[in-house]
Specification:
Strand order of the largest sheet: 1-2-3-4-5
Shape: elongated
Strand content: 5-15%
Distance between the termini: 37 Å
Order of helices and strands: HHEEEHHEE
Helix content: 55-70%
Largest sheet: 5 strands, mixed
Length: 174
């Protein structure tokens, strides 16, 4: 609906969902505060004014949605290119994650940068950080190319700290 019917989106989200409620609130507030009868002409002028303002608001919202959509498409292409890199080079770095394929064809996903040192390690902090790793991985896995590539593969998630990049502090097969 958003990309195909721009003006419909702007009208509904701007004038109907923003302008009309604001106009009605304004009219009711004015009636209560002034305690005088409103004419139909005053009501129509007020509603038209706020609905026109709603078109501006709807247009701004539409542009914001288009910008977000464009950013998602760009991100989608980067991930699809990353799958090709992973297939050919057996390693791919994206944001804070490093994907690699081990000798036994297991896809290993690990963090690259981390914020824990040895004195900060606790079970709760480790679990919390591992959950962030899993959330980042799950978000990337929603990409069609990466999702289909990983679909029939065994995946090992590994969490490392800053001080030891050889021995994981947590790992899980999924």
């Amino acid at each position: 609906m958003k990309r195909k019917n721009k003006w419909r989106y702007i009208f509904i989200h701007g004038s109907v969902l923003w302008g009309l409620p604001v106009a009605l609130t304004f009219i009711l507030t004015e009636k209560i505060l002034k305690e005088e009868n409103l004419t139909i002409l005053n009501v129509l002028i007020t509603v038209c004014f706020f609905m026109a303002g709603g078109l501006l608001s709807g247009n701004r919202l539409y542009k914001q949605c288009e910008k977000n959509y464009g950013r998602l498409l760009e991100e989608d292409h980067k991930i699809s290119d990353g799958v090709r890199i992973l297939e050919s080079e057996k390693s791919w770095h994206h944001e804070n994650l490093i994907f690699s394929i081990s000798d036994d064809q297991i896809v290993v996903v690990r963090n690259d940068l981390f914020w824990l040192s040895e004195d900060q390690l606790s079970v709760n902090r480790t679990n919390e950080c591992f959950q962030v790793l899993m959330d980042d991985f799950s978000r990337l896995r929603e990409n069609k190319a990466l999702g289909s590539y990983l679909e029939k593969r065994k995946i090992k998630l590994q969490l490392f700290n800053n001080e030891d990049k050889i021995h994981p502090i947590a790992e899980k097969y999924i």
